[in-house]
Automatic annotation (TrEMBL):
GO cellular component terms, A-Z: mitochondrial matrix
Residue ranges occupied by any Aminotransferase class I/classII large domain in the UniProt entry: 49-406
GO MF term list: 2-aminoadipate transaminase activity; kynurenine-glyoxylate transaminase activity; pyridoxal phosphate binding
InterPro entries the UniProt entry points to: Aminotransferase_I/II_large, Class-I_PLP-dep_aminotransf, PyrdxlP-dep_Trfase, PyrdxlP-dep_Trfase_major
Keyword Iron: no
Keywords recorded for this protein, A-Z: Aminotransferase, Pyridoxal phosphate, Transferase
Pfam family, one: Aminotran_1_2
Protein name: Aminotransferase class I/classII large domain-containing protein
């Protein structure tokens, strides 16, 4: 199937073109080129001599010479070439891509930035977009100002329900633009905690193909899968039509402060995002990219995988501690599925119709912070009986204490 990508580009996206200055930076690296064109500050005025990064395993990275120059200077918008190459190799290995397919990758300031740029280059005001219900509040905050028709599709422990999706698309009202895009968080969904298995992904992909929709696969928790059954088949890996843009992040596995994300997908669409970035952040932080590149190069994919295993083990233990605390304190006061990935529990508070009232006042008085379910609903005026609890940071003792306080609160509330 050949996709006409122009059909998916918003009016804003169509107006984004290459910046003359940014294009020069890419060609100024060619051998023998003398550039009087760019506006690069002269690095001899910068105060940094070298940067040493000590790692927890007692090894260290020293950034100096040419690497330091790169870290301190403007970079190509697609990203630091050596990091870009490393990440492309990673994508090839993890998502079974080959060189023959016309895909590309852009490094961004966290995946949040990539998502925001993608939404802007794809969607016009009034356009329709499909998301899971509930969905990531950070994406809703990108979508709301775009004045979109956001269509939330019901989810279960495996994420978006294919029958509901198909039904909704088949009965889409003719007075509203037909959706162009499905936005999904397939692994350790934020906030729902669901993880799609391969079968579910195949079903959703087939529907996207039938109705000719792009899939935006937001997968920052892909490497945080600690369940028995790991999903290795991303939407990107099954993308025979070239309709998937995949969003990855180093935030949950190396550091969220590095602010490094990357989007992978069809050349045409990644180029559109690149034009957007040329006019917004120019490129992700050079310092962060050089640090990440040196670390990843020194590890290679094998040691990257070892690191990932230890991160998974960490979150699995946290998840198990949370389950133990839930069983001890909340028993049948809440309903939930046990997440197989990510860092969130999505809990339905039984007997409570509007969790916001409880969470934003009474829970705070008891010194417990949870997020109310309504923050993740596509319709901002709807109420929810759910809360999102994160188990990434709290110690086992803190989890126990927090859930004990919540249990007291729920008992008080139900008896009133
Ligand atoms: N998508 C989802 C589903 C997230 O949970 C987050 C982080 N909270 C992001 C995107 C953004 O991550 P980052 O910008 O740090 O890569």
């Amino acid at each position: 199937m050949t996709i006409d990508y122009n059909k998916f580009i918003s009016n804003r996206g169509k107006l984004k073109g290459p910046s003359a200055i940014r294009e020069i930076i890419a060609i100024s690296q060619q051998p023998g080129m003398i550039s009087l064109g760019g506006g690069l500050p002269n690095p001899s005025t910068f105060p940094f001599k070298s940067i040493k990064v000590e790692l927890k395993d007692s090894s260290s990275l020293t950034i100096e010479g040419q690497d330091l120059e790169l870290a301190l200077q403007y970079l190509p918008t697609y990203g630091l070439p050596k990091l870009s190459l490393w990440l492309k190799e990673l994508q090839k290995v993890k998502h079974y891509l080959t060189d023959r397919e016309s895909w590309n990758l852009i490094i961004t300031t966290g995946s949040q930035d990539a998502l925001s740029m993608a939404m802007e280059v794809l969607l016009n005001d009034g356009d329709s977009i499909i998301t899971e219900e509930p969905t990531y509040s950070g994406t809703l905050s990108i979508l709301r100002p775009l004045a979109l028709n956001i269509i939330g599709i019901e989810t279960d422990e495996y994420g978006m329900k294919p029958d509901q999706l198909e039904q909704r698309l088949s009965t889409h009202p003719s007075d509203k633009p037909f959706p162009k895009v499905i936005y999904l968080i397939p692994t350790g969904q934020n906030p729902g905690g669901s993880t799609m298995n391969d079968k579910r992904k195949e079903e959703i992909y087939a529907i996207a193909s039938k109705f000719n929709l792009l899939i935006l696969e937001d997968d920052p928790y892909f490497y945080l899968q600690y369940g028995e059954e790991k999903s290795k088949k991303s939407f990107l890996s099954m993308d025979v039509d070239r309709r998937v843009i995949r969003f990855d992040s180093l935030s949950k596995i190396l550091s969220s402060g590095l602010r490094i994300g990357f989007a992978t997908g069809p050349q045409f669409l990644i180029e559109k995002i690149q034009y957007h970035q040329q006019s917004s952040t120019l490129h992700a932080s050079g310092m962060s990219q050089v640090i990440a590149q040196q670390l990843l190069t020194s590890w290679g994919i094998e040691n990257f995988d070892k690191h990932i295993e230890s991160v998974q083990q960490f979150y699995k233990e946290k998840r198990d501690q949370f389950v133990a605390a839930l069983l001890e304190h909340l028993g049948d006061l809440v309903e939930y599925n046990i997440p197989q990935a990510g860092m969130f529990f999505w809990m339905k508070l039984k007997g409570i119709s509007d969790s916001k009232k409880l969470i934003s006042q009474k829970a705070l008085e008891k010194k417990v912070i949870l997020l109310p379910g309504c923050a993740f609903l596509t319709n901002p005026s709807e109420i929810s009986s759910h809360v999102r609890a994160s188990f990434s940071i709290a110690s086992s003792e803190q989890m126990n204490e927090a859930l004990k306080r919540l249990s007291l609160l729920l008992k008080e509330e139900i008896s009133n």
